[in-house]
Amino acid sequence: MAVEKMSIAKALNESLRLALDTDPKVLIMGEDVGKLGGVFRITDGLQKDFGEDRVIDTPLAESGIVGTAIGLALRGYRPIVEIQFDGFVFPAYDQIVTQLAKMHARALGKVKLPVVVRIPYGGGIGAVEHHSESPEALFAHVAGLKVVSPSNASDAYWMMQQAVQSDDPVIFFEPKRRYWDKGEVDTESIPGPLHKAVTAREGSDLTLVAYGPMVKVCLEAAAAAQEEGKSIEVLDLRSMAPIDFDAIQRSAEKTGRVVVVHEAPVFYGSGAEIAARITERCFYHLEAPVLRVGGYHVPYPPARLEDEYLPGLDRVLDAVDRSLAF
């Protein structure tokens, strides 16, 4: 068993390196992904080792990047494209939702588009406007797209491998403020299917459901709640489309209480779909309404206000207390 301790950034880099090394049809494209190695150095060293024909520095044109990837995929390649920051994806939104997501159905299954769109997302790094968005619900709402987000180094490594091997397009959201969090990665043992939720912490009183950057916050909240005698389960969704509703249902029936936590605004966020679905499935098992914790329905604020905007330990624990009070 080959277990290494590495950051999420390093795990992604190693995973991309393995993908390039394993399959000559894998290409990486994006702004500054080559010589610079990406703004967050996720593609550091890859152009040097695999050449400019495999790791391609593109113009500043997200629509062109995704459009080119679609054409390459139609010719048998497996492109991995990087959107430099979450808020930059919208010039490519048309290509993603009207072409990339629809081609498989339009061709009655005869055409596959194995494209991975990497998007560093979320706040917590003190960046300016358009650099801290959480637009995952916009993509999860679109049929034909798989939408995933790792919360730790092991998932970053293996979920990227699985995304690249998928014949369907995958929107791969990378929690940028977690890039430097370290964890153990077993590079020889796949932890599980791409869209399967994982119990990050066992508990019996209440379930916290999260993904990406909020899993760490929920684990911290569960540890703090334990000091007050509360047993909190933390479920890492890992995938926002499809969602492993069976795993959420099992946990909800076990604990009787569910709080969904995500960094994106609560209004029309993915927590709304989870709350509605679990209420339908588990109505007679729930001891309290499914609660949601997330960002506010406002444009992303300046860096000095990030701590007020982002869901933190206190807001999660407040929701826990409200749920347990029912």
TrEMBL record:
Cofactors required: thiamine diphosphate
Pfam family, one: Transketolase_C
InterPro entries per UniProt: THDP-binding, Transketo_C/PFOR_II, Transketolase-like_Pyr-bd, Transketolase_C
One of the record's GO molecular function terms: oxidoreductase activity
Keywords: Oxidoreductase, Thiamine pyrophosphate
UniProt-listed SMART domains: Transket_pyr (SM00861)
Domain (Transketolase-like pyrimidine-binding) ranges: 6-181
PANTHER family recorded: PYRUVATE DEHYDROGENASE E1 COMPONENT BETA SUBUNIT, PYRUVATE DEHYDROGENASE E1 COMPONENT SUBUNIT BETA
Protein name according to UniProt: Alpha-ketoacid dehydrogenase subunit beta
Source species: Streptomyces filamentosus
Gene: bkdB1
